[in-house]
Amino acid sequence: MVLSTHIARVSDSLPLAQSVDDVQGPDLTQYKQQAKLIFRKLTPSSETRCSIDSGPMSLHYLVHPPPSDPSSVVYLTITEASYPRKLAFSYLDELAREFEMSYGRQILQRTLRPYAFVAFDTFMQRTKRLYADSRTAESTAGSHLDKLNEDLQDVQKIMTKNMEDLLWRGDSLDHMSTLSSSLRDESLKYRRAARKINVDAMIRKYAPIGALVLLFLFILYVKFG
């Protein structure tokens, strides 16, 4: 189930809104600290959708507009690890649409104070109840899931990380994106090198034959020319 939700401005990690959580639920303190860590590690090249596994919990975040945009906002929810990722991102999509429609023009204000949009909790609580149970959410959020499937095409396209990587190795959230770009560059270099090797091999293979043909034609030219 959806346990806690946090919204922050990407450029400076300023918290904009946060859900009022059920005090009877699990202790979320450490996971809220992890959420703040994620906000600090976002960069302009970070993935826009990411699921981070953290023991019995998972943290899912959505960035909109993309991190490179000055008005970019990150929407993060903490769920049980068994909660379907598709539902988590459908929930975040709903929040992003409503938040941008309600407060989008105010995001760039430098005078914003922490939790300036605390009133948004009313919408978060109403939407959270729809997604509280995964079976209920799957039956009530069909249209949103269809749109999400169109956007993602495949749930595997959502980047996944492990919280231990962020805590102990200090990996940034754009590490996988950077690694992917490096692999593409290396692959391109390899293909170019392979083509050059093939051309060189053909030259070495047929150059002697070509030389003999030219020599034969030259002799014919000298003899009968």
Short characterization:
The protein is α+β, with helices and mostly antiparallel strands and 225 residues long.
Explain this structure:
The chain has 225 residues and is an alpha+beta fold. It has a single domain (2-171), classed as 2-Layer Sandwich (Beta-Lactamase). It is built from seven helices and six strands; from the N terminus they run ββαβββααααβαα. The chain has helices at 29-41, 85-103, 121-130, 134-140, 142-152, 163-169, 175-224; strands at residues 2-9, 15-18, 49-54, 57-64, 73-80, 159-162. It has a six-stranded mixed β-sheet, sandwiched between helices. Strand 3 and strand 4 (57-64) form a beta hairpin. The longest helix is centred in the last third of the chain and has 50 residues, at 175-224. The N and C termini lie far apart (93 Å). The model is unreliable at 151-156 (pLDDT under 50).
